[in-house]
From TrEMBL:
InterPro entries in UniProt: Adenine_glyco, DNA-3mA_glycosylase, DNA_glycosylase
Protein name: DNA-3-methyladenine glycosylase I
Record-listed Zn(2+) binding positions: C5, H18
Pfam families in alphabetical order: Adenine_glyco
One GO molecular-function entry: metal ion binding
A single BP term in Gene Ontology: base-excision repair
Keyword vocabulary terms for this entry: Metal-binding, Zinc
Length: 177
């Protein structure tokens, strides 16, 4: 099977994500939340489908502002479920809203979503999965793995010989500390 580092370069959607996002450490809460929502929405679909809809997700979920999404009501749910630009899956929409509310609660003890991640890092993959399942909705092993790799908490986003890997390492992802 080809690695993402072989498939992504030069592709109009995969290329920019591979070269500038995937595997780099993330500090911004909205970006962490975006990655979680996108990974959840990828379940059962191709990553290309999600990347093509990324801008629409950004608009539909109000820039992934945790507080705005956490306050979404029934009208917002209806708006999301009727928005053909995004993935219209009730369970995934509900998970995004619920998970935003969870992140708000995590702030009380850990000051931020990132603080919560840092407080639990490093964990083996299986322990991360258990923690995410206890904490969030719609977070199975593959979603957790991809979320953590994409945000720099687990290695494996890039091959060692991928030119992007050197930039990822220079950015000091948590897994490399």
């Amino acid at each position: 099977m080809a690695h993402y580092c072989d498939l992504a370069p030069g592709h109009p959607f995969h290329g920019p994500y591979h070269d500038h996002d995937y595997g780099f450490p993330v500090e911004d809460e909205a970006t962490l939340f975006e990655r979680l929502v996108l990974e959840i929405n990828q379940a059962g679909l191709s990553w290309l489908t999600v990347l093509k809809k990324r801008e629409a997700f950004f608009d539909a979920f109000r820039g992934f502002d945790v507080d705005l999404v956490a306050a979404f009501d029934d009208d917002d749910r209806a708006r999301l479920l009727s928005d053909a630009r995004i993935i219209r899956n009730r369970l995934k929409v509900e998970a995004a809203i619920h998970n935003a509310q969870v992140i708000q609660r995590l702030r009380q003890e850990h000051s931020s979503f990132r603080g919560w991640l840092e407080a639990h890092h490093p964990l083996p993959h299986g322990d991360w999965v258990k923690l995410f399942k206890r904490t969030f909705r719609f977070t199975g092993p593959e979603i957790v793995n991809e979320f953590l790799m994409s945000t720099g908490y687990l290695p494996g986003a890039h091959r060692d010989d991928c030119p992007v890997q050197a930039r990822v390492l220079a950015a000091a992802p948590p897994w490399a500390r």
